[in-house]
Structures
1.
Amino acid sequence: MLITKILKVRRERNKYEVFIDDKPGLRVSEATLAKSGLYTGKTLDEKVIEQIVQADSRERAYQVAVNFISYRPRSSKEIVDKLARKGFTRELALEVVDQLKELSLLNDLQFARMFVRDKLRGKPMGKAMLRRKLLDKGIAFQLSERVLKEYVTEENEQEAARTLAVRKMKMSRSRFSALDPLARQKRLVDYLLSRGFSQDVATKTVRSIIQ
């Protein structure tokens, strides 16, 4: 099989159509074209064509992943999920993840640290909710626990719970004023529990606010 013509695809950036025996045979990226050494007059066989197709698929998956992490750091799971949505196989997605890690473009520990810092700077939440969110991002349990120990102490969790409870009372002042102290206390405790704080932290915090 002979490459008879190579044309740039007009409406697709950095894409080329490779004609084999005068018929459209391959559509590859500019990077694949160069790496595979394709040129008019080159002879190909089925095995080589399959290798080129696989190489181009890896290149496309890699570019999708790099573009995805250019906006903000991502976890390995987010990369795999993104590539799956784009139609790439899980096996290929995991290969890309390994490649990104080797290039120091992907690091789940650094991602987890950034994620927890950002969440703590935003709307306060307890350790349990932070743990769930990390696990949802695909961060391993042991890694999650390591990061939570680094950033969430008993003192700052208690402080975060108090900040959230006071804010809740101010925002819902009319509702809370109509409740008796016990009902008010229960309402606040339930709210803190829903934000991932432990029963102990929620109860102590609310008691310190509502005497």
2.
Amino acid sequence: MGNGNLVHGGAVISCPHGGRAVSTAAAGTGVRIDGLPAVTAADLFTVSGCPHSVGGRPQPCTSVRWMPAGGGDEVRIDGVPVLLDTSAAMCFSAGLVPQGPPVVAPVHQGVSSR
């Protein structure tokens, strides 16, 4: 398994320009970290408040796509890899232009299940 901390639905994640990224689908998992749902590779992340522009034209980040390490030895929830704060990811504009990796603030651990 890769090194890193599990990411939960309340983790502070931002795009490289300061926009806030939030999981829109984490509520469905029964596994909780610090009382919040664990986040998996199946969850969608949207970005709001990104001020990025190119040549004076707004090009804000709108989504984050995660790429779990793979290899079959990662932790899974219902068969889907969980996300770690070290998992590879990329922020994208609405036109799917790569904008850079997200920034994940350190998370505290406290795993439980319902």
3.
Amino acid sequence: MKKLVLLLSLVVVALLMSSCTYFFYSQDGHLGYYPGAVGVPVGSFSASREQWYLLSPLWFPFSEPNKHLDEMIIPEVVKYNGSFAKDLKIGYGFTFIDYLITYFTGGVLGRNTITVDGQVFRNF
């Protein structure tokens, strides 16, 4: 009985920590919102949005945050009173909750998550 409880606990922890996400970033910091600008760093940020869709995110999306990343980046730049963002890391994929939603709706309704992490800079 103890082995079964331990095994189920490990499965639950593994599922809660699982996701399938693709990351896009640059080692040299050139992936950015105004990537050629020069300044001093004033803070870092992380923003995320969900994309809901019917059948497929390519066929019937309810929203397209992947086409409007600036709507996630600009509020973070303004919050730090900065001028631009660099060193961006963009993640696109499914979290465990996204999998559950898609599974329980039979794949008719689905959700994926887009995250943007980066550094906010201010001009000299």
